[in-house]
Amino acid sequence: MCRWLAYSGEPLQPSLVILDAQHSLVAQSLDSPLGAETVNGDGFGFGWYPVGSTAGSHPSTFHSVEPAWNDENLREITDAIESPLFLSHVRAAAGPPIQRTNCHPFRHHNWLFMHNGVIHGFHAMKRDLTFAVDPSLYPDIQGTTDSEVLFHLALTFGLLDDPIAGMTRAVQFVEQTGREHGIGYPMQGTIALADGATIWAFRYSSEGRSRTLFHSVDIPTLQEMYPDVPRLKLFGENARVVVSEPLNDLPGAFVEVPESVVAILGPEGYHYEPFMAGAGVR
């Protein structure tokens, strides 16, 4: 459906991974070998936290309905700034119109959210899902996507206090509502959340056949494996990415995130926790 990338580590120019990598996010917007759609040209978004950001820091965002490969402002911005934590997303619209309010990542205070996938049967469930959003949050829904509603459901169900619990309750509600509407496998996708210090990357689908998700191996290990690759010297030892598909062809550089798992990327690196384990295929 879409492709996304999340980076955490030493501050760097986002263009190094969004535009300049061998299989950069912009390259994937033109040719996505592992995606449900080969081309993701229905707009894009970029959200970043300032240098020195911590949990609670306020991010900036930039969205465009242009294809990512055709918007020179993306190059200008990602060359001009440095950031220690940023998210970027290229969109393949699954029905909702191509408009800026439908481009990821979505923002709520210090939080950024993006999604690759779909809520199957969203048209039939839309009223039930949307009306379950807390009334104080409802006015903040600006677009028409299932992804933005899912984000606000997670906020309603406690994401600010416990991101994993909030997302769990939101997905459980989507699946329960789907069953009530006769939809067998409502939830599909990968999700990225960030609060300014930590990234949570979820991989889950009701059917147990989720969209692809990978994370990079740590830079010191990669530099030891590939001492003659000069590009690796551009990154600090804490630089890490979570991506819909690998950014290069170096064997062993990326690890696939398992099904029904949340990969948590914090200052100490990655660790996994189960997510909706055993709740999928029926």
TrEMBL record:
Q: Where is the Glutamine amidotransferase type-2 domain?
A: 2-282
One Pfam family matching this protein: GATase_4
- UniProt protein name: Class II glutamine amidotransferase
Q: Which SUPFAM superfamilies match?
A: N-terminal nucleophile aminohydrolases (Ntn hydrolases) (SSF56235)
Q: Name one GO molecular function term.
A: transferase activity
Species source reads Agromyces badenianii
Would the keyword Transferase be found if you checked this record's keyword annotation?
A: yes
Q: Which UniProt keywords apply?
A: Glutamine amidotransferase, Transferase
